[in-house]
Amino acid sequence: MEMSLMIDYKFQCANTTCLPFINIITSSIRNCQVACLARSQCIAATFHRSTSDCELFDNMLNQNGNMLGDVDTTSMNIIGGTRFPPEPTTANSTTATAASTTTTRTSTTTTAIPKWTMIGNMSVARGYHTASIIANETVLVAGGYNGAYLNSAELYDPSTDTRTTTANMNITRARHTASTLANGLVLVTGGQNSGGYLNSAEFYNSSTGTWAVTGNMSVAREYHTASTLSNGLVLVAGGNNSASFFNSAELYNPSTGTWTATGSMNVGRGYHTATILANGLILITGGSSGVTYLNSAELYNLTTGTWTNTGSMSVGRGYHTASILANGKVLVTGGYNGASFFNSAELYNPSTGTWSTTGSMSTTRARHIASTLANGLVLVTGGQNSGGYLNSAELYNPSTGTWTTTANMSITRAVHTASTLVNGKVLVTGGSRSSGVYLNSAELY
């Protein structure tokens, strides 16, 4: 499916036929696209960066020539291609004779065969790094570890399929987080380097290609989560250092460059996940308390600054993934509990606060990555299990609750990154192919 993007524009909607048929909260432009493509009546959408509001339209009456400039918005139209599953395409054949000409119309279905394509290597091998989509849909890769801690950063441009180096971070770090802010800056927090655990933070400005130090967190932490909220603040929760697994959480204000404490989680945890729900709440799942792996989950309410326990998963797990689906549910996959790797998956329903099991992956895995595609499917790549590191990939179909295997990556890898690009492709970078062996390779799905 192809969608045309109109960055910094919205539909003027001078008449009532152009009003959205639904408004939802999504964490990114990509998820707004997914929400539109998952609804058969949706033909266009507008994403508001400052509020994370995603407007879906089913009747535009040729509004493309009636656009209004707005630097806070990106609008998009469905212009071609197919939703999943593919629709028939029509071919014409003509047979001519001396007496007459006959035209025959036949209908066939064409499905692209998924594959992985190796692209240019990064300048340095790295795992435990971050990858963030920034201005002009460029991908910023920062930091990581390859036997030494890294402060280097580089950019991938999907439009030209090229890589360029950019300024180094001020501090080497791995196992940190990177969050794209409403103003386009990328905030990097915490992690670890040869000097120990970090409470420092800095941000990348894509306009200048430079990094600037900002306020420190109150606690040095790694394996934490960071979520960009609808009001522009960034919520950092949990994580660990050599002393403890934390239940503390704090908020970063980009306007002031400062951190303030907010309510603490009910349980200290690291190796967990954080997902922004359509209702604006933040769902935290699983992880480790330092003593045991957790099946508990809790919700953060930005309005009250408090945490509330919600339904527990069927099994304790860390190093798993959590993905928001177009129907608002959250898909959790795989993970590890100190003894076993999992292939199980389950769904969280925000409307009921309960979990239900869904189809299991074909392979047990942890330290993998899950990416939501434009057609609503979820692509899981790589990771590791008791048999070693993995190059396998599989797709989850929310409509059927089932998994299908897809083409393998070219290289086994865990602790890598995966970024869903606007062109619909998935960029995988770096990682580790075996213990102590790190990768500079990258590939596209």
From TrEMBL:
UniProt keywords, alphabetically: Kelch repeat, Repeat
Keyword hit for Repeat: yes
Residue span of region Disordered: 82-107
Superkingdom in the source lineage: Eukaryota
Domain Apple: 26-66
Compositional bias (Low complexity): 89-107
This protein's name: Apple domain-containing protein
Organism expressing this protein natively: Adineta steineri
Lineage of source species: Eukaryota, Metazoa, Spiralia, Gnathifera, Rotifera
